[in-house]
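Bench notes, afternoon.
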Amino acid sequence: MASDRARRALVACLFGVTTIVAAEAVAHAQTKTERDMARALMDEGDAKVEKKDLEGALRAYRAAHAIMGVPSTGIEVARTEEKLGHLVEAHKAALEVARSPEKPGEPKPFTEAREAAKKLAAELETRVPTITVVVQGVPESAPVEVKINGVLLPSEAARDAQPVNPGKHEVSAAATGLPPVSKEVEVAEAQRLRVALALGDAAASGGGSDKPGRRVSPLVYVGFGVGGAGLIAGTVTGVLSLSRAGTVEDLCPAGTCPTQAALDEATPVNDSAKTLANVSNVAFALAVVGVGVGVAGIFLSGGEARKSPEQTSLRLNVGPTGLGLVGRF
């Protein structure tokens, strides 16, 4: 702040000298009263900046620039606009200063302000976001009315990228014989946003969405597919195991076979029951793991849709000796 006050004091002194040495360079400041008023406004602007009252500072700087119209007042307008987040206005003000013609014998602060404005304009060039409105449902050659924040865009520029300040904006479009469509969007600094507005048949068919579909991770389909298949397989094999165990109990009550024939018949049935029980346990464990993978897949999902569920498949094969998992991802 101290350097700003020193710069302001130097410029104030040069205002008086400029009238004699380089009168043409400050054509707007034709009287001492105007120069004194401009100096007071610049001091007021500096004081408001120190108090964090940027809106008040901007009003003071604008008033001073309206009187003087010199680079040293214009650059303060551009800097304050930039601090307020008014990037479009800051860029315009900086370009105005940067493109102002250099006058013979102009004071050094004017030259320095012009150079600072060139750097600020170049920086803001990449920071200013844009909105491009894409109107659907009407021919390219058809006249449309496009508005941003209620301001009608020139017809020849309606489909071009429009510079806007970061934040929320209302975008609307209308055409003859069709109801208008509007949408609220939010843009970040340096963002290049395309907004689709659907009119007529395009609106009825659900067109106009400018948001990409959410990508669902294949882990969701794999995990819950394995979980579901494991649950089914575990239930089926568990029921079969219990059924065969019941057969063994009928042949050999309390684990004691009354005859050799009963023992011979019960032995393979008992072995099959044990195998099915093991398969059932493995299937249920696989179901728990599958559900865990599916839940993890939900948290990992996001971004643009890349693959539909139809492209991901999973099949669990249950055989007499174990489980088989076949999938396509």
